[in-house]
Amino acid sequence: MESGSGLDPSKSKGSGSGEGKFGAFLKRVEPFLPRKELNPVELRSWAKKTGFVSDYSGETSTKLGETESSAFDLPKGRDHQTDRASSRQTDLDPILGRSRRSDIGSDPESKPGSIEEERGSNRNEAAETPLENEGGKISRDLENGCYYPGGGEGEGGGWPKPIVMKYGLRDDPPSYGPLIYYGLQHYLSLAGSLIFIPLVIVPAMDGSDKDTAAVISTMLLVTGITTILHCYFGTRLPLVQGSSFVYLAPALVVINSEEFRNLTEHKFREIMRELQGAIIVGSLFQCILGSTGLMSLLLRFINPVVVAPTVAAVGLAFFSYGFPQAGTCVEISIPVIVMLLICTLYLRGVSIFGHRIFRIYAVPLSALIVWTYALFLTVGGAYDYKGCNADIPSSNILINECKKHAYTMKHCRTDASNAWTTSPWLRIPYPFQWGFPYFHMRTCIVMIFVSLVASVDSVGTYHATSMLVNAKRPTRGVVSRGVALEGFCSLLAGIWGSGTGSTTLTENIHTINITKVANRRALAIGALFLIFLSFVGKLGAILASIPQALAASVLCFIWALTVALGLSNLRYTQTASFRNITIVGVSLFLGLSIPAYFQQYQPLSTLILPSYYLSFGAASSGPFQTGIIQLDFAMNAVMSLNMVVTFLLAFVLDNTVPGSKEERGVYVWSRAEDMEMDPAMQADYSLPRRVSQFFGCRCCD
């Protein structure tokens, strides 16, 4: 303010007059004190009434700084204003998508109610009212994606460091060389999730090594096709679509049901056709959920407190399978787990030629090293037993001397698989290659529930990825479009017969975080390579030759990572809230305990199934018995799935237990009108022009 200004109490004729005018001004501009139930409309109307100007754009403007300073820093002179305007830099956090000025919020002890105390204690200091500190911050939070309790401050009260991407969504490298490299890098870092699921389900279906190689090739083909579709017609975020662990547990439930465990002929094809039919029906439900707008309504009830335990339960569902299967050959499994921990934790900061090889390629590098070690053990005679046939371990069961060694030879030897000799060099996976699918109500109901859980999993991944790649949150319409396309991708997986549905891999978040590459084009080029490699039958044969103990060890690490990624969604909430702690804890505990109750009703299964399959055999003999066989099977199967029970509990509790939006950390998605006025947002999420014209504008927002 200039000297002699009537609003400057220090320069007025009388102190009482100055204080009166200053108080009158403050009465006109009252600070907005947020209530528990915040309404964005109220915030906007309050800003319009008081003349508040948001600096959300993240641009440093001297004029804007001067305007705000003249409105709120009344006791200061013009000289101080100029210094303040130049120092009020706006730091844009690309992760959280919010801005914070360096001179605001520096005092962690400041509270909304302390303005009167500050005004009375020191008239000569800037009266930094909570109007801007609280109202402006929450307003920007509402616009940018979520409430972030505590101001989102990092360690020591500082603002979290932004993650700088090498290449963003639309930042294309200068040549095709880096595009190819980064595309292949993304898929190599996800190798464990992409190729190890067939190594679990095909042996469980009594499929041959040739069948395992064929399913791996099919999975590579479906992953390539669906990823390209999602990059250009889904949410358009850089997310790999593939066989998800969400579908693995229900697949094992169907495989180990009483109807199929007693089959002796064509067991693999019969089970695969059953899975195909169930996946197709579940995918159609997901398509309807996304395309009709029902998903947009459901998004109002899906928040981090629901997503976190649900995704965590996906990984915890395999705790009874993981190390019991890996422990069949501890001389291989333990080195794999140790190598993975060394690469991801102890060597994560080591850079070779500018690339953090150990962190990015932890899974393929560890698997390759230990696989080579297992080869030396096999060649060196570690698994040669007197009188036992090394070429066909399964035949050794007939020999009394070899019965105790046959299991070890099957799981540890690197030459136990005959996939290389039986698989062709060229094989093109084709639709309905295992036969026409079976459609039964019991398995279709199970997959409908699973597709709902897969959609919830994807919602959390969409939100986290958009924040990670420094983009604005997608609109509800974009999220619904992504869910609908995921349903179509699962439909393709069911038609081709990959054994599981296709959905967004949760591990994408970890991959983008470590590679710092979020380029759609690179992902699409990598997907083209996957499609080409799926035609090479011998490649599937090589991957099918991985010892089962090694595959189970890698999966132990990936499942643990899935649990951690799921629980990381709680960072958007008030983690110290007793409400949130209780909901997550009860959901996870009962999500494990209730299925255990259903799984104990299988007295005959303990004599037939291996111990690591017992938890997936409750569908045929659970406690839910109404006399309707189809319904009994479906309900016993659904209630034996940890992720489904956890989701239902968390969904009901989070949406019925009172709690503020800040406490719950609710997801706030962008509005359709914001997208229409933001060219950058349109470039990130809008469909290609011709496609949007064909489907209509509603598909674009």
TrEMBL record:
Basic and acidic residues: bias regions: 75-86, 100-126
GO cellular component, as recorded: membrane
Organism superkingdom: Eukaryota
Keyword entries, A-Z: Membrane, Transmembrane, Transmembrane helix
Segments of skewed composition (Polar residues): 57-70
Chain intervals with Low complexity compositional bias: 1-14
Pfam families linked: Xan_ur_permease
Segments of this protein annotated with the region Disordered: 1-22, 49-142
Chain ranges passing through the membrane: 179-201, 213-232, 277-299, 306-324, 330-348, 360-383, 439-464, 522-543, 549-568, 580-598, 633-653
Record InterPro entries: NCS2 (IPR006043)
Its membrane topology: Multi-pass membrane protein
Family of this protein: Belongs to the nucleobase:cation symporter-2 (NCS2) (TC 2.A.40) family.
Entry-linked PANTHER family: XANTHINE-URACIL / VITAMIN C PERMEASE FAMILY MEMBER
Protein name: Nucleobase-ascorbate transporter 11
Species the sequence originates in: Brassica oleracea var. oleracea
